Amino acid sequence: MNKIGTYRWRICALLFFATTINYLDRQVIGLLKPVLEDQFNWSETDYSNIVITFQAAYAISLLGFGGIIDRIGTKLGYTISIIVWSIAAMLHALATGTLSFAFMRGLLGLGEAGNFPAAIKTTAEWFPKNERALATGIFNSGANIGAVAAPILVPWILGVYGWEMAFIVTGAIGFIWLIFWWFYYEVPSKHKMLSKEEFDYIHADKEEKDENQDPVKWGRLFGFKQTYAFVFGKMLTDPIWWFFLFWLPSYFNERFHLDLKKPSIELIIVYTATTIGSIGGGWLSGWLINKGWPSFKARKYSMLGFALAVVPIMMARYCDNIWQAVALISLAAAAHQAWSANIYSIATDMFPKKAVSSVIGIGGMAGSVGGIFFPMIVGFLLDKYKLAGDINDGYNIIFLLCGSAYVLAWAIIYTLAPKLETANID
């Protein structure tokens, strides 16, 4: 490792902190939900509509951002993304009701959509195949760190300064990261601090050495079954993660009377587990590849294990104390992040670097479309059963859907692309 060089891991650290900020900013509203519901008299459907607005804007922007980043590059693309989303996060402090909150969430979604297309393309540029899942798992664990930091930081700011300042403080952090990104990032071929040995190692994959770098027309990607494998994998599983982010705090509050005005050790444990899942899931498939497994086989069996690990969340309906629920949900959330590290990596396995951001954008849009419809279902179920006198029955149905989504997604991915064959774009 020392002979090769380690600068690529510094780049991974930048991606990690950007993703941490990304999820910190989007998680704030979930923690403030009980306070905002009381102040603005929201129903579960009102809140779900605000979430849907974010998802819709996120979906539309993902589709555009992916292609834009493939053309203007990761450095400028990431810069534009974090400026937009940081400003949008701070502007939440000016919201005065449901409509204005929905507008701010939409603007936040437009900016935050640039994070994953830029980060995955950066990973493809800076890491060989055997390290991409691990690098993705590490930077993607920033989502979990952001979700862990939020239950600590937000209640404290809320108690001392009010909910408006919670949005302002968390939103401003993005501008600090931007300074480091602008001064320390560049693509490998232009980076002055990258050694020749590390550059050669990054570009060691034989099939990528002579790759034609002409931009790919976005519409052409819909002609490949590999695109649809990634699309369905994201569409079926991304909404489950959105549910974990936006509804878990209120689930614990309503089911077990957790006080969200104080730092919540239960939520910290859940989101800490996802960090272990993200890094461990990325490490596992990379370890199997280094052991001599073909990359498609390593991804296939790793992802099957992660899909099965989500299934026990169906048993959450039988939990009669909070720690049983924390255990089941922690396992499912960790498995999701392990799955996520690998599904992003299969996109870089199946497509050349010049098309990666576009493919990630298309798949991310599909995940967000799923994220639009799933909150509709969640809002409908929770309002229906709240009126009937037992909101827990609504959560029970939702957990059944969560537990089955990953196995179905796995089956579709490996039916469409059983060996994750590289798309013959050229």
Automatic annotation (TrEMBL):
What name does this protein carry? MFS transporter
PROSITE patterns cross-referenced by the UniProt entry: MFS (PS50850)
Membrane topology label: Multi-pass membrane protein
Xref: Gene3D superfamilies: MFS general substrate transporter like domains
Keywords of the record: Membrane, Transmembrane, Transmembrane helix
Q: Where is it localised?
A: Membrane
Name the CDD domains for this protein.
MFS_ExuT_GudP_like (cd17319)
Q: Which residues form a coiled coil?
A: none
Q: Where is the Major facilitator superfamily (MFS) profile domain?
A: 11-421
Would the keyword Transmembrane helix be found if you checked this record's keyword annotation? yes
Bilayer-spanning residue ranges = 50-69, 76-103, 165-185, 227-248, 268-289, 301-318, 359-382, 394-417
Q: Identify the InterPro entries for this entry.
A: MFS, MFS_dom, MFS_Na/Anion_cotransporter, MFS_trans_sf, Sugar_P_transporter
